[in-house]
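Researcher: Before we compare anything, I want clean individual predictions. No alignment, no superposition, just each chain on its own. First chain goes here; please echo the sequence and then give the structure tokens.
Model: Echoing the first chain and its structure:
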Amino acid sequence: MAKKRKPPNIKGDPRTFDPDFKGPVVNRSCTDVLCFIIFILFIIGYIILGLIAWVHGDPRRVAYPTDSQGHFCGQKGTPNENKSILFYFNLFSCTSPSVMVNLQCPTTQICVSKCPEKFLTYVETQLLYKNDKTSWTYYSQFCKSPFPKSDRSLSQILMDDDCPAAIFPSKPFLQRCFPDFSTKNGTLTVGNKTMFEDGKGKTRNAGELRAAANRINKILDAKSLGMRLFEDYATTWYWILMGLIIAMLLSWIFLILLRFTAGFLFWVFMSGVVGVIGYGIWHCYKEYNNLRGRQNSHFTIYDIGIQTDISMYLQLRQTWFAFMIILCILEALVILTLIFLRNRIRISIALLKEGSKAIRYVPTTLIYPVLTFTFLSICICYWAVTAVYLATSGLPIYKIIAPAGQCKHENKTCDPEIFNTTEISKACPGAQCIFAFYGGKSVYHQYIPTLQIFNLFVFLWLINFVFALGQCTLAGAFASYYWASKKPEDIPPYPLFTAFGRAIRYHTGSLAFGSLILALIQMFRIVLEYLDKRLKVLRTRECKTCWLSEPGEVGTISRAAAPESQNNISKFLQCCLKCCFWCLEKAVKFLNRNAYVMIAIYGKNFCRSARDAFNLLIRNVLKVAVMDKVTDFVLILGKMLVTGCIGVLAFLLFTERLPILIEGPSLNYYWVPLLTVVIGSYLVAHGFFSVYAMCIDTLFICFCEDLERNDGSTEKPYFIAPTLHGILNKKQLVPQKQKE
């Protein structure tokens, strides 16, 4: 009778005892060669893309304003070198609806060295020319080219579009001339005037000019905010750098202390976190109490609505009360967690001590985050520079813009050199051929959006590869420590550099494979976010179309209201997709991390290593639940303490609350450098604590392998330290003889 075949184990077969196994396999071969070749080809293509973008792009187009002819204002080596400010001929034409559609004001724009400082019309210069030629000399500097005298008629000047009809007192703002508005006795004025001539026979008021300027301001709003943010960064960059350096030093100190006194330092972490949250509760109560009795402080957030000025919310008692409640809940959660997880915390402390011992024998691992940071900086800088050069590639493109917005040729491309001689200028009086953007009709220019997508995808791939390389390298170094029979005698020399060399030489393809999976998931998430933004814009336009329809057009409103249920369904599906891909990314990151540990130990390809790691974790699922997450919790608390300390110091400095010790900088938005310091400090702390996290993950994988390979007998002794084994496994063991 034939012997029945044993069904395969869904959890995989456990490892068996191998007397020749002494840690990471030395004799190994290259893995996932096909993915390695594809990865190298993509990198070569990425380099070629950067070179092409560098040849065609010009980042000066972002830094300098551009006149109607597409020339830069203030660019060195050009006729406009000393003319760094953009001047609008007829600012009133900027009230046209086409301004927001085309993002251009339909009037001639030239580069000037300074803005007008007084009221003056072209007609006035003609009347004053015989007695006072200086007025024309002053006026002509705001024309396309200087004229010897003002002997041409107003209609001829306006037809040829050589000079503005009038100039007004202005000041440079964002390298553009804007009217010098001021308020006098509650009345808006320009140059101390409320009424003035526009040079075309009409009397205008300051309100009309303000409306025109506001149209352009809406276009420049983002640039204005960017300039203020840039000013804050320029003022505080050295404080930000100092905060990041202090965060790095604190992280180093905590890691060194953790190496000797893991248990004691853990409770210091806990006390620090509880203390920081307690200080936040006290500060919120103090602000809440100080606002008592102040005018308008009793208003609610609902009363003031959505405001762009965040400081308005900080003037409300309700805001500080809400902050205080949130911090109280957080404080209670932390304290309850400490009480109910005290036994599992013992496991975390034991793992931290074992990890401390591993880092004591392999101290170079603490330097590796600097190498990771260097690689990441190179990738980020290359991506950003390539994106800017791609965005500024091409030739000047000119489009027809009509002030009334009713020209059938509007938004079509044109040639400014011959535009005035074409039939379009006659069919659309007042229409102008104005610079719109940079582009072209060549194959390269048509595929710039595709190249930007390629730039982003390869950037994500490289970023994930850098993280994968670091995880595999650290795993190889810590695995060499674990599987050494006698520590430190049997630990190979230079384990970190050896592991790094093995990862690069043999497993670049496997690391690229795992990174590619993550990059594809992240790219799909970005596409989902982009589609969500686009759909929101389309919904907004549909809503505006509905409200702008004629009163008699009832069908328009019903058609707009009909797809409301479809919009809700699409929103629900989008949320589901976002949630699913977020979970998928987290799961793949977890599996990749453990797969890289198996690659570092056994040198197999990515798929087999991922399968073996997954089966091993499934066979030890309870140990994973006990140790992995609790240890992560302990390390997160360390990051919170470092970030909290730096955040409190930065808050006191940037809000100028330390006048006795040091004088803080004067800022537009104090939260800009504050958030930068807080986020930067967390990333710095994360980089250093990730060494410990990878160490503990590697030791845990090795420990599970150790339990399957060996039984603690004299013939099959364990490699793990007796103290940690006693906590995690109650079986009797005969440990390896180690030199302590």
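Researcher: Okay. Second chain, same rules.
Model: Second chain and its structure:
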Amino acid sequence: METCHVTLAVRGETSPGEVIAVVGDCEALGSWCHQRAVILRPDSNEGNTWTTTITVQKGVVSHYRYFKGFFLESKSARGPSQVIVNLWETHQQPRTMSPTDQIIDDGNFGNYNGLNCVDSGWLTCQTEIRLRLHHSKVAPVSITKKKFKKSRFRIKLVLEGFEEEDEDEEEDVLSPTTWLKMTSTLEISMISANGYKSRHSQPECGNTLEPSQWTEYSIHTMDPDNLELNFEFFEEDLSNHVVQGDAHPGHVGTACLLSSSFRESGKDHGVATLPIMGRNSRQTIGKVRVDYLVIRPIQGLQCDMSSSFCKYWKKRGALNVGHRGAGSTRAAKHQRVRENTIASFKSAAQHGAAYVEFDVHLSKDAVPIVYHDLTCCISTKKKNDKTSLELIEVPVKDLTFDQLQLLKLVHATAIKEDIDKDLLDDEEEVDEHQPFPSLSQIFQAIPEHVGFNIELKWICQMKDGAWDGNLSSYFNMNTFLDIVLSCVLQKGGKRRIVFSCFDPDICTMVRQKQNKYPILFLTQGISEKYPELMDIRCQTTQIAMSFAQSENILGISAHTEELLKNLSFIGDAQSKGLVVFSWGDDNNDHENRRKLREQGIDGLIYDRICECLGPYFDSSSSDSPSVRSKESSQTSSS
């Protein structure tokens, strides 16, 4: 095959040690793999211009993107480079290289076809540690020293722990220690119902803590087990109790957290209570309660750079999303199609649902399964009694996939209800009506034109201290997400997929662990139907918006109960660049859906979707149904 040389040039500013690289769909450009990308070199005459020359096949059109990042040596001999992607171009249509081009001036990094479209990178080989101070349960700082009882403190996190490099190290060679320092970052974010301030540096003497505010420190590092994380405490009134000789007047104490303790505990999220040691004595002046989260790269899978939908949303009319497929079984008792089954998803698709919504969690043997509740009931027949049953509630996570397939499904509330007859009838389940299908089975059985809204099931803690499903412990967060995300990334194909979750940490982790699919933060807001949640970030729709903005996720999925009382929330969220879905029993009412559509809602999740949508088939396609909504003829906003 005949080849030709093509020179690429792009302009962009970089930080020390950072480079611009190019990746594309041909072998010469790494086949969309960031580890095999081609590094550009800065032009000696124009420092902000980066160039490279590549050899490509003549007559073959190639597509490519630029990114900024660090290229580190592999930890193993002959292994691929370790690459940290800081920023990358995410245009839906990547740059195109014509086979006749010999020199291509691509202008400025991130700009293509008149659009500036860049996104932050994901965790490729580095780890992210989040440390949070907040008033969700109790005040994070408790002072025991009498003279500081009435003091207000400012807190600053200082990152330490890297060993100093040898003095005889060659100056022009970057040592591993230098690379670790250069690629480690520390930023602070603060969110409240009134707004957010994300990813910025700290003032010299830190920040104050407010009861209604969530303060979060984010550390990116290549050495997550060898960091010393020091919380430095300063009195807010720096004129009092000044310690002579201090670099920072008013510095009164330090609380130290070793990152190695996360690995030793075996937990990637939890709470650490640290003593605050006085500045000039060995006495403690109080303690600080630090909430931590460790986000690690997906194990055993590398994301490619061919496309990204993490922040992409094509504005259209409100999407109809089938709740648990054709609808909740308990919300539509007359239906014979069980929720969260292949039959239910197919029924919703056949009646024109653009997406189907369902919950995914793991079985005991780590198989991603589709089921709504955290628990289910297993039955035992009493001896010599063929008509009555005893029900026992069991966490789904404690049963293997094969065991779940053997269950005759009953909702956990059946313990309080007399529905033995339902258990004794219909002994045989048709395969497509079988509960607990695996996520892989759903991908295989449902046509690819049907989008998936995948709710990642996680336990929530209520304000009163109780836990969802009475489960105070669950899977390791990284392990849980690695398994589910790997399944979706491998089987997603061209299907439209959006994740959602009520747990804000899961939302953060999905955003950081992969680069392809978006996530919505599920929020119940202020509700009379559900108990208040412990986490500050979950308590109102306004702070949910601030959280979504701060984490740069696609948007929120809000509870219709609160939206109907505050319809302006939809426009407020969208003006902040957020996509808005809505969920809840109130969506089952046609008039409520009409109101939400008039406000420009992006997606409606509701039951009985088969009654509200009537399919017809487009003659131009034998397998792609077009949707005619029964509601669309009744309202011009649909």
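Researcher: What stands out in the second chain?
Model: Residues 419-429, 615-628, 632-638 have pLDDT under 50 and may be disordered. Additionally, The longest helix spans residues 477-491.
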